[in-house]
Amino acid sequence: MKYRILTFLIFGVAVFFLAEKNRHESGLTSTQALDQWWLDFCITNSTGRITDAAVTLVKIDDSYESALPSDHLTRLDYAVILANIEKFNPRAVSVIPPLLWKEKNVINQRILNSQCLKIPALTLGATVENSPVAAEKNSSFQYDALTRIEGDLTKITSFSRTIAYPEKGSRGKGQVAFGKIELSDPKNKNGTLMLPLVARHGD
Questions:
Q1: Cα–Cα distance between 12 and 152 in angstroms, integer?
Q2: Are 46 and 40 in contact (CB under 8 A)?
Q3: Distance in angstroms (rounded) separating the CA atoms of residues 80 and 157
Q4: Quick one: which of 119, 105, 117 has its CA closest to 75?
Q5: How far apart are CA 189 and CA 183, in angstroms?
Q6: What is the pTM of this model?
Q7: Per-residue CA distances from 170 to 109, 119, 181, 198 (Å)
Q8: In whole angstroms, how far apart are CA 126 and each of 137, 144, 147?
Q9: Which of 55, 57, 96, 116 gives a 20 to 30 Å CA spacing to 192?
């Protein structure tokens, strides 16, 4: 019994000194430093901890400098981005901006399409709109439909039409999901990126 008490005392002293050391380095209070150290310890030693990212999320806007003289990212830019991600052997990759361009560069298109085929579990993003005054409801674009839903469906954000959908070639063996619902309530709070998981279309 006394050995157990002694072990706990030694462990407690060690935790205290580690917390104090961390507090001085980070400028936190003793309680905050101890809480943070204990949280890090539990996460690091948890049996269910995540060692590799389950999904690699690609979210880049047009403020990113293109490799080519252009005012926006080209197909070749995204091909290079995905090629670099492929080196890390990701489990799954999701790209939020719709891979859609007006210009028709056949060579760059083939390069991007080829690279997309190499990415495992690729999900490409589309942009939909939930405007109640949309001119028409276009349901020609395909999204995975849920067949069993429980709860109040009226609380799920609805969308009336698809604004941007990835190019057919880049879709390859991947699937398409909406990464943004325009005219909906803002979901980016406290610097945390929140993405819509489900939405309603028609009935």
A1: 49
A2: no
A3: 34
A4: 105
A5: 16
A6: 0.64
A7: 8, 11, 21, 23
A8: 16, 13, 21
A9: 116
